Amino acid sequence: MVEVIPAILPKDYDDLKDKIAIVRGYASIVQIDICDGIFVKNISWPFYGQASKDVDIMDQSLDQHFLNIINEREGMPFWEDVEFELDLMVSDAITNFDIYTKLGPRRIILHIEAVGNLEEFKHFLEGIDPYIRDSIEIGIAINTTTGTEQIFPLIPSVDFVQLMGIENIGFQGQDFDERVLGQVKILKEKFPDIMISVDGSVNFETAPKLVEAGVERLISGSVIFNSNDIIDTIEQLKNS
Fold this sequence. Notes:
Helix content: 25-40%
Structural class: alpha/beta
Number of domains: 1
Strand content: 15-25%
Number of strands: 8
CATH superfamily: Aldolase class I
Strand order of the largest sheet: 1-2-3-4-5-6-7-8
Shape: globular
CATH class: Alpha Beta
Radius of gyration: 17 Å
Distance between the termini: 8 Å
CATH topology: TIM Barrel
Largest sheet: 8 strands, parallel, barrel
């Protein structure tokens, strides 16, 4: 059975907390989309209203809950019941990687289009502290518009790959990009054991196609949170 992960694009801390509360008990892990308004045009918690190339992630003007969490004064909402994966659609994912780990994620996803030189990125992945690697799974994400072969050298250094099912990332409710099915096929042929997630436009129509292609994890936002029956929606996606 495929794993279904609710995706949250939080406007602010209250929105994050409310949405986690909705799926708590129905999902063991949720994805939190963190957007800085630089790598992608959208902005989400903790950068809400703070988009600027000069923003420091430790800036006191950022969300106070975020600052409290990374300084270990409080935990993520409902951390006792739900694990988190962070989809870092940000320009500072490498520079501030250690800070993002302080949010206590089970998984972290890094977008290759945001990391710059891929050889340097490979060295970064290989140099992540073993303690972090033991507690956090590291994934790389790639857009449908980027050649799949670019991530081939990185596969031995990551735990999974996240393919984007939409072209305009950082926003929910976008149209499905069929090119992702070709990317799944290419990766499964070359790396049959790699875990593949797909994020973006995952719904009742596209989920069966993705699962048939070889996808093991489905990341879904709008379909789940706009549903009148979240339990049934998650179960239907699991059984795609």
